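Q: What structure does this chain adopt?
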Amino acid sequence: MSVKEIFKKLSGFYVLGNLLAMLLVIILLCVGVWFGLDIYTRHGEGIEVPNLEDMTFDQAKVLLEERNLQIQVSDSGYNKRLPADIILAQTPGTGTTVKSGHVIYVTVNSPSSPTVIIPDLIDNSSLREAQAKLAAMGFNMLPPQRVPGEKDWVYGILCRGRRVGTGDRISTDSPLTLLVGTGGYEDDIDAVDYDDIGATEDEEASSATTAVEEFEEVTAPERTEAPAADNSETSE
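A:
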């Protein structure tokens, strides 16, 4: 078969028809994918995220459901000036345009202040180091209480008059007082029992009650009047 005959067969109606059919299928697939992606991604559709801060979780949920959006709690915080369950922050932020069904993540206000573990500061850090660490953890610091010991060295921590130690969980709303050394003599330092500092109010009240119970009232004996002297003279 010559080259001319082969070219003539390839250029026949049947072959050209198949090629045109394949080209048409490719064009239809491209058009279908183009419009299909627009429908799937909701091209041109956008819902503006409302401001949810200072709303309760239930109020925000109703508002978002009306806009075909979802809500989910991602974290919790604490602001004592606001009631519990109030939304403190949201992601995405106010005014952001999102698609229908998008999830809005919120941070809600906790009903109680968080508790934090007291780090290893007692007899292991200076006043400045302890104050910096505790302040960074959210604690309010009261003026330090001076005790005999190495100058500005931390010997204990008081919380509302009660002694706390490493590993105790304390509310960040509770102010802390550090027991720090004054720089006294070694003899005075050895004589101090730091565990006795910061007795609780219950212990003080108990001690006072015991002292009252042990007190015994002593009454003075009643005085008796001496009989009057007989001044009458007897006559013989």
